[in-house]
Amino acid sequence: MRQITFNQQNASAIGLGTWRMGEGNNAKNEEELKTIQYGLDHGITVLDTAEMYGDGKSETLIGKAIQGYNRDDFQLISKFYPNHATPELIKSSLENSLKRLKTDYLDLYLLHWRGATPLAETIAGLQAVQKAGYIKNWGVSNFDIADLKELDSLAGGNECRVNEDLYNVASRGIEYSILPWQKEHKMSFIGYSPFGSDGGDFLTIKPILIEMAKQKHVTVYQLLLAWVLRNHNILSIPKSSTIEHLKDNMAAVDIKFTADELKLIDSEYPKPNKNTQLEVI
């Protein structure tokens, strides 16, 4: 598995997203558990979850899957609700997440999206649990450029390690200002939903992608993921509920594009030339 620099350390080029995992019947949950373990056994070093996912069911599934693994060999990320963003509720939410995950600490703890709580209070809460050793680092999710600049202007805001936003071939708004800003400020980026939503929103597959995938003898979804990974500077976290799907995603890491192929994709899915409103799933 190709490595990238993420959260100031080496990490696999893709992580494993777990939205809607752990919510099925026993057979489905067992299949997902084995998929997580297959990933850990074959080079995946980042697992992404949230207290929102299935009201903790995703965290519970991961907690079962990681037993027996060396905790230092992978990074574990979870996220908390905006209405849990006060210092007191951050601590309570984190304690519940750690219990479900059956671990003593998180590598990253993210504010899932902005809410009514002032960012200064959220920073204070995150610093407190970090000082106590419950998290190694913290970050944010679904933050636009104005949010990031506001965060950075506050005391302790420059300690934010990552921002996680929607990113795929049809949702490229982050390329205009967010990615350059984060690079300048040495903040890692996580791109979620490289295939769009389950319902086909946020990404329409155009004929050019189908044809290019055929020429490369890969699936369209492998092509979509490879495109997101093309610059080797972001972490993508596609969900994989089966080992077969995970194998396909892992193989996509090695797909290459020519300059002409990238120009052709740009012609159908143009890169942004101005700031646009951040898209959120």
From TrEMBL:
Native organism: Companilactobacillus keshanensis
Protein name: Aldo/keto reductase
PANTHER family membership: ALDEHYDE REDUCTASE (PTHR43638:SF3), OXIDOREDUCTASE, ALDO/KETO REDUCTASE FAMILY PROTEIN (PTHR43638)
SUPFAM superfamilies: NAD(P)-linked oxidoreductase
Lineage: Bacteria, Bacillati, Bacillota, Bacilli, Lactobacillales
Highest rank taxon of the organism: Bacteria
A Pfam family annotated for this UniProt entry: Aldo_ket_red
Record-annotated NADP-dependent oxidoreductase domain positions: 13-267
